Amino acid sequence: MTAPENIAREVQVALGRRYRFSASHRLHNAKLSDAENRELYGKCNNPHGHGHNYVLEVLLSGPLDPATGMIANLTDLDAFVEQQVLQDYDHKSFNEDVAEFRDRVPTTENLCLDIFQRLKTFPLAKLERIRVEETGNNSFEYAGEHTEEILL
Amino acid sequence: MILLTRKIEFSASHRYDNPAWSPEENRRVFGKCNNPHGHGHNYTLEVTVAGEPHPVTGMVLDLKELKDLLDREVMQRMDHRNLNAEVPELAGKIPTCENIALVIWNLLEPKIPSGTLHRVRLYESADLFADCYRAAQSNGHAPAAKAGK
User: Fold this and answer.
1) Probe site for chain A from B14, B117, B125, B131 (most A CB atoms < 10 A)
2) Which candidate from A63, A69, A75 shows the least CB-CB separation from B96?
3) Angle at Cα B81 formed by Cα A59 and Cα B74, nearest 5°?
4) Measured between alpha carbons, how far is A25 from B128 in angstroms, rounded to an integer?
5) pLDDT, tens digit, for every residue of B6-30?
6) Which residue positions in chain B have pLDDT lower than 50?
7) Least CB-packed of A30, A110, B84, B119 within 10 Å?
8) How many residue pairs bridge chain A and chain B with CB atoms within 8 Å of each other?
9) Is the pTM of this model over 0.90?
10) Could you tell me which residues come within 8 angstroms of residue A133 by beta carbon, excluding any fewer than 6 positions away?
């Protein structure tokens, strides 16, 4: 078997962890008319909102710590995601409760952009990608490309 | 290029314990995973092979050959085993999801009958997995810059 040092240089290892949050939202763009919003967003524009059970998948990469065999200790990652995302997102209404969505439509695409911003400062490994399942049938991935431009 | 994925499941026990540390330090870092008598998981392994369909068979590789390879290298080695005590490739390592995935990658990569090993994804539970892949085959990101801890 090749020495672990060589393997670590050649083959990349990533750690994936899944979290859940439940939240409500309404897709509505104030720059459009009510009719345009209904036409564009359909049921998702219903005035009083609706909710989903979201799944957030976080993918980190980095060298394995030889003492622990880990990219990052799950205790640290779980606490970070809880503090950075879940405390703000879980059992909330995006439109009313999360500042980033006061003026931004809380589509799952936009959730991806916001979550990536919140998690990319994780100090113990590199954030490779996130994936958000809005339902079991819809999922969205983001790996951080052109973040600033998109957010503007 | 076509990506082909085969999934298998195996069940195994393990324990996280670094002999260089005190019992207290092990409990602090590894928590429940340090419980003295170990614990187990139902692991799900997804093995993805990249290649072009053969002009005659239309296949990237014969799934039967891949199934036999996974049976030989993974199932016989790890299924219903204690990963600390019975898997020599993990001797001296903490049998984390990351390390097990890396061992599986190294066992499989030279033996893939046709095509190339693209990704090994090992689920320890539905909410925790590790991926192994060649950095060039990732989503375009360079390997993590950190050289070591």
Assistant:
1) B131
2) A69
3) 60
4) 28
5) 999 999 999 999 999 999 999 999 9
6) 137-149
7) A30
8) 106
9) no
10) A54, A55, A57, A139
Q: What is the sign, positive or negative, of the torsion defined by CA atoms of A75, A80, A81, A86?
A: positive
Please choose, from the candidates A20, A19, A17, the residue with its C-alpha nearest in 3D space to the C-alpha of residue A59. A17
Distance between CA atoms of residues B131 and B98, nearest Å: 7
Q: What number of residues does chain A have?
A: 152
Q: What confidence tens digit (pLDDT) does each residue in B73-91 have?
A: 999 999 999 999 999 999 9
Q: Which two tokens stand for residue A90?
A: 């879980």
Chain A nearest-CA residue for B106: A1
CA torsion sign for B134, B129, B15, B23 is positive
User: Which H helix or E strand runs over A108?
Assistant: helix A108-119
Q: Is B98 a catalytic site residue?
A: no
Residue A146 pLDDT level (bands cut at 50, 70, 90): low
How many percent of chain A have pLDDT more than 90?
A: 88
* Residue B109 token pair: 């990569």
Q: Which pLDDT belongs to residue A145?
A: 84
3-state SS assignment for residue A119:
helix
Q: How far apart are CA A57 and CA A41, in angstroms?
A: 26
Give the residue from chain B lying closest to A16, CA to CA.
B129
For residue A134, which of A45, A56, A32 has the smallest C-alpha distance?
A56
Token readout for B47 is: 């093995």
**Predicted pLDDT at B142:** 42
What does the block give as tokens for B97? 């999801």
Between chains, do A63 and B138 touch, taking CB under 8 Å as contact?
no
Q: How much is the CA Rg of chain B, to the nearest whole Å?
A: 17
The CA distance from B146 to A63, in Å, is 7
CA distance A118 to A135: 22
